[in-house]
Amino acid sequence: MIGKLTGRLDYKALDHVMIDVRGVGYIVYCSDRTLASLPPVGEAVQLYTELLVREDLMQLFGFTSLVEKEWHRLLTSVQGVGAKVSLAILGTLGPDGVSRAIALGDWATVKAAKGVGPKTAQRIVLDLKDKAPGVMAMGGTVSDALAGPDLDGLVEPVGEGRAAAAPRKSAPKSVATGAAAAAAGALSALANLGYGPSDAAAAVAEAAANVPDAGEADLIRAALRLLAPKG
Prior knowledge:
Largest sheet: 5 strands, mixed, barrel
Distance between the termini: 53 Å
Shape: globular
Number of strands: 7
Number of domains: 3
Order of helices and strands: EEEHEEHHHHHHEEHHH
Number of helices: 10
Strand content: 15-25%
Radius of gyration: 19 Å
């Protein structure tokens, strides 16, 4: 199994690239979003890869993050979703967008991808909604995902029997940056506070959709407001 390639970008085509790894050229198919994020031809490049093997076909698919790779694996496990459709979804929504749409059960957003009909979009959401929390939690480093954020002394009461995390005084240097890392940290915090994975993922996804540039602490507060008992 080829899990990652590091080499020189030899050329870019409409749906694939060639990566030269010590004189061996690997053709790797990518989403539009991934292709647009790659460096110019001739420069160093690294992609996580998934190898598709059939009786008459071998193809490599490339991803800039493990989250994107995992969503591709899960999407192609859904009946009627092949690699082409999976790349179309990831190219349209990005891995963070896929996480939000599936966590929220938003099949209409999934349907926006080329080649995805309403029935397929609904099947994707139904089959993968329980998988969204685990994939969203991959946004940070492995140690951060396991340990979760430090909530000691940073909790204040909200509603009945629940607590909210206030902003951290300082963030560990090992925490990854970006929307995926913020969502992963927020999910870990909510899990530490006793919320179920599906409820936490839906709340974090909705909070991230409302405030796309929110940091981890802001996501935690917004998600807790969404999870607080109504009335």
